[in-house]
Each structure stands twice: as C-alpha cells, then as structure tokens.
C-alpha cells in the first residue's frame, strides 16, 4: 500500500489542468460515465487514499479530462499492447516500440498493465476524436477511426515521456480544426529525404495532419519526373524517396499535399521550354510566368498534375495560382495583348486577362478533380468581378492582403468559400527575412494568433469560424542559403507547437502561460 500511495502522489504532482473536466470525488460515477474497460474489477481498486488525478500535460493540451482516484498507469516490461481490430496493427506496433511494450495483436483476455486500442465506429462521430481511459492498472484508447486512436497514443506517449505515469481518469479529446498543417518549400531549397521524414515524425507526435510540399518554382523542380525529365533539377527527391515520405506520413495520419504552382512560379519548367515563356508587348521576359494563351502550356502542366496524382494519393491538391506577373502591371490588356486576345476569344468580347487566369485555374482544378482531389489555391489567385469566377469548390489558402487590388478575407467568406489560414503575419517562416518578413516566434503565435486571424492581426467575425477549415505554418526558402536544415528545424520548433495548440483548441486563451508552455515543450521533447 505504501508503494501505491507513493505512485498516487507522483501522479498528483505530475501535471496541471489544461482542459475542462469533471472533478467528482466519486470514482464509481466516473466509471459509469465510460464503458471503455470491461471485464474484471480494477486492480487495485481506487480509494479515497489516492488524490484526484490531474489532466495529462501534452501539446496540444487535451480538451477534457474526468478526474478519478487511482495510481494511474506506467509502462513496464511485459505489459502488452492489444488491439480490437486488425486495422490498428500499425498504431499498436508503433506505440509498443515507443514505450518498450510487447505487441500482442488481437486478444480477448485482459491482463494487468494492458494497453488496449479499440475502434468504436459510430455515425457522425469526429474520426479524429478519441477517449483514453486509465483505470485499474490498464489503459484503453478508443475512437471512431484509426486517426483518433493514433492521436490517443500520442497523448499517452507525451504524458509518459513528461511524467512517466498516465493519470487515472478519462480523457475525451478532439481537434477544433480539421486542417492542421506545415508547408515546406523544397523548390527553392533542397531538403534531404531523411530531414523531411524527421519532420513527419515530429508533426505526427504533435497531431498535425498535413504536410504541404511546394516542389516547383523558378529556382528548381525537385521531384523526379517520368513525363518531363528535362525540367528536374540536379538536386531532387526520387520518386522512391517521396513514396517513402508519403507512406511514413500516412502511418502518422498525415496527408501530403503537393503543390505545382501555376501559371506563375514556373521558371524551372520554362527554362527547359523557353517557347512557353510569357513576354510583354515589347518582347520583354516576365520571370516565372508561363504564356497561358498557348495550348502547350496547359498540356505540360496537366501532364505533371496527372503524373504526380499517382505519387500523392491524398485527397488535397494545391494549385498555387498566386503572383502571376501579367496581373501586377497597371494595364494587363495593353501590356499583354496576346493574353487579352485569347481571353476575348475564349470568354467573349468583354473578357480580360484576369478572366483568362481564372479560367486557367478552373481548368487545372478540373484536372486534379478527375483524380478525386479537392483543389486549393492562394487567395491572390481569386479576382473580384469579371466574367469568369473560380469554381466554388476551390479552397482558399489565405496568406496575404498585400497584393494589388487586395480583398478583405470577409469578401471570400461571404461568398461561402472554405478557407485555410496561412496568415503571413504569423505563420510565414521566410529564410533570410526578405521583403520585411521576420522569423515568426512561437510566443507571438501562442499569445496573439487564432484561426480567425486570417489577415494581419485582426480576426474575422466568429460567425465565419465554420468556413475556416484550419491553418498551416509555412516554410519558404526565398534566400535558400540563409539557414541550414538543422537551423530551420530549430527555428520552427516552437512555432509549430504554438500553431497546433491554437488549431486543436477552440479557446482563444490557453491555460498555460508562454513560459509554462515552453517549459512543457522542453520536457516533452
């Protein structure tokens, strides 16, 4: 009994409350609220000798914890991981290896110390939600889908790493936002496959579910291509390496979102196909811009979209569409008469170069939609008015309000569009800090940003919250040699943790101070 009391004291001292939870002294009533553990009575039985448990300390913080009395659970040699469904084998083997447990597969019996993973498939339940019950010397993680079970194991892993013991009681948890991402610019700077895989593991443990790969730009095209090998940069990822990254990400329930930006930012493609270079009325070259009046321009981009659809099986696709340099001049029709003529021919006498660019976006959206992908594009690729409008299902990746003719975020939201928040004021890590960018800090994200803050520092009205699908931290490599891979990893460490905390929780004010949050991150890493 002295040992049990000591264990209870360790549990009581191991954390602070991070969510909203019931704190009833009646362990029996807590047991009746959760039917996750069936079978023999708890061993040892919780008594009033144990103080009420406190919530696990994790990043992101759990949403709800029902406190109970008991010694909690800690992994020991000989403890098993058992699964209630063969689909959970990957999750079971992963957490078993991480905690030094024995993976036992599907078992119906119960033993002391068991960690059981269970699918409770229910209609309408958030597939990323989970329940973690610690009671009677055992742990059960149950969820409607594999993703939820995985997130439950991440909570358990972090708690064991930080405090060695998972507290008695029931965690009920789910994310506030469905899109929780990090975008990586591998076009301007080559990152090794091993480095990217390390980031995938980091993102998975933090409950991110997207990794964006921007792999085509003016400075490079960084993934092996069979349809157009002539455009690929000397330093690049092979398809085998990308497949390994994609498979690793899938095992962590992370979708890899590819981006081939067009019709701007195509310099690496144009370098191998100079006949597709956009030129102005005076014959001057327009950097990175492809001539969208030429059929061959669409053919080569669609070739690439079709090719990589097989390499990236996730449901999302980023089409770029930003900063097309034909549209940053005062009079696009006068500066680019060939584009203006093509617009009128395709869309009627009043059509403009903006209409032609919007038509290009819609055509590329058709290409990826044929592969069952949901298209996404940067907000400055959407234009007000005009005779051609962007397809309604193209999600807006909102990053800036600095473009010519900038539109307030509410304009997009009032049209009923779904938005992913990439706010460049908080979430842009731009190597070398060009163009007034400064490296974002985790503290500023943690204390000032929420998913409703789409542009600058001002939040949009809360009534639009449902249209903001989530957010993404973004690493851009404008001055590629400004930092090494290791410096990038160190620089984004705390911003990533702050970002996911704000995407997981609906509350604007975190429970922990920044100093406490940073100390917790140091303890968990």
UniProtKB/TrEMBL annotation:
<protein>
    <submittedName>
        <fullName>Glycoside hydrolase family 20 protein</fullName>
    </submittedName>
</protein>
<feature type="domain" description="Beta-hexosaminidase bacterial type N-terminal">
    <location>
        <begin position="56"/>
        <end position="173"/>
    </location>
</feature>
<feature type="compositionally biased region" description="Polar residues">
    <location>
        <begin position="46"/>
        <end position="56"/>
    </location>
</feature>
<dbReference type="Pfam" id="PF02838">
    <property type="entry name" value="Glyco_hydro_20b"/>
</dbReference>
<comment type="similarity">
    <text>Belongs to the glycosyl hydrolase 20 family.</text>
</comment>
<dbReference type="Pfam" id="PF00728">
    <property type="entry name" value="Glyco_hydro_20"/>
</dbReference>
<keyword id="KW-0378">Hydrolase</keyword>
<dbReference type="InterPro" id="IPR015883">
    <property type="entry name" value="Glyco_hydro_20_cat"/>
</dbReference>
<dbReference type="InterPro" id="IPR015882">
    <property type="entry name" value="HEX_bac_N"/>
</dbReference>
<dbReference type="InterPro" id="IPR052764">
    <property type="entry name" value="GH20_Enzymes"/>
</dbReference>
<dbReference type="InterPro" id="IPR017853">
    <property type="entry name" value="GH"/>
</dbReference>
<feature type="region of interest" description="Disordered">
    <location>
        <begin position="28"/>
        <end position="79"/>
    </location>
</feature>
<dbReference type="InterPro" id="IPR029018">
    <property type="entry name" value="Hex-like_dom2"/>
</dbReference>
<dbReference type="GO" id="GO:0016787">
    <property type="term" value="F:hydrolase activity"/>
</dbReference>
<feature type="domain" description="Glycoside hydrolase family 20 catalytic">
    <location>
        <begin position="180"/>
        <end position="485"/>
    </location>
</feature>
<keyword id="KW-0326">Glycosidase</keyword>
<dbReference type="InterPro" id="IPR025705">
    <property type="entry name" value="Beta_hexosaminidase_sua/sub"/>
</dbReference>
<feature type="compositionally biased region" description="Low complexity">
    <location>
        <begin position="28"/>
        <end position="40"/>
    </location>
</feature>
